Amino acid sequence: MAAQGWLTPRRRSATARSVLAGEAAAEAARKTSQQLEQEREEKAAAARAEAAEPAFPVVGDTRAAAFFDLDNTVMQGAAIFHFGRGLYKRKFFQRRELARFAWAQVWFRLAGVEDPEHMQEARDSALSIVKGHRVSELMSIGEEIYDEYMADRIWPGTRALAQAHLDAGQKVWLVTAAPVETATIIARRLGLTGALGTVAESVDGVYTGKLVGELLHGPAKAEAVRALAAAEGLDLARCAAYSDSHNDIPMLSLVGHPYAVNPDTKLRRHAREREWRLRDYRTGRKAAKVGIPAAAGVGALAGGTAAALALHRRRR
Fold it and tell me: Is residue 73 a contact partner of residue 158, using CB atoms and an 8 Å limit?
């Protein structure tokens, strides 16, 4: 009998850690299912709204144009970081400066937003690096850097939106805090009209290490769009603007057709409140790589763990 008892599998009681793991998993699954259901409802609503919308862009409306933010709207990641990588490869600066560029990019990808302090650091680094170099030299190198680091990071969905405006006979402009030379290269490679970007001062074709004005960021983008629209004879109420960042709300608010593309949390909330159009071309894997704060997996894990801990404490 003793032998039989020894051979018979015994039911062992679950440990406290097993209970916690199980409860956390259950709560995470519940939250994930709710978020997936919400995403399905949003996609269905967007599809219904798109089907009900009149044809846009309007073919032949030459007083309309489209303005596209660059970083994480047209291209995954920050253009200034990719440009910095290319310059480092060509020994324009040392590893220490590359680390500063990298930190700004890491913050951008993890936080999912453009932080003014980190952008300032990237700007100062870039200006110190290009000081004394000829504009023509940097333009030539920029063409090579685009092929090496940027071409494969263009979002196909956003590229298709830009092409729709071009096919309608409208002009399409990039609007970015990146150097205007870099932005112009990207615009030309994508077949766009041109680019509004940060202007670095140059004398006799040589960079001085100073800016003309300030970084083209936030409200400055709106001012640039307003100035270009006036010069081009555009009707902003018939124009469209596209961005992923809440920092670009001033620019988006200028036009009659604002789009939140791959939006950060604040822009998504703002767009919903004002019934702006939403477009998200990120897959789950890509969304995780660019650091969406409210990504389903991260949110469910955090929420599930917290709920399970609270429930576990009550039971104890």
Answer: yes
Tens-place pLDDT, residues 220-258: 999 999 999 999 999 999 999 999 999 999 999 999 999
Q: What percent of the chain has pLDDT over 90?
A: 45
71 labelled catalytic: yes
Q: Which residue has the higher pLDDT, 273 or 106?
A: 273
Question: What whole-number distance in Å separates Cα of residue 214 and Cα of residue 191?
Answer: 27
Residue with tokens 């951008």: 108
**69 tagged catalytic:** yes
How far is Cα 205 from Cα 169, in angstroms, rounded to an integer?
34
Q: Using one digit for the tens of pLDDT, what is the confidence trace for 113-153?
A: 555 555 565 566 667 778 888 999 989 999 999 999 999 99
Amino acid at position 64, single letter: A
**Cα–chain center distance at 268:** 12
Q: Which residues contact 83 (CB under 8 A, 6 or more apart)?
A: 126, 142, 145, 149, 178, 179, 182
User: Beta 200-203 vs 171-179: how paired, if at all?
Assistant: unpaired
Q: Got the DSSP string for 272-312?
A: HHHT-EEE----HHHHHHHT-TT-HHHHHHHHHHHHHHHHH
Instruction: Give the H or E element holding residue 198.
Output: strand 194-198
| pTM as predicted | 0.69
Catalytic residue among 69, 244, 264, 280: 69
Closest CA to 254 of 231, 290, 228: 228
Q: Which residues are within 8 A (CB) of 78 and not within 5 positions of it... i.e. 6 or more apart? A: 71, 72, 104, 105, 108, 122, 178
The tokens of 40 are what?
A: 């399905």
Under 8 Å between Cβ of 132 and 206: yes
Per annotation, catalytic residue among 61, 71, 235, 264:
71
d(CA 314, CA 226): 58
Single-letter code of the amino acid located at 27: E
The secondary structure of residue 244, as a DSSP letter, is S
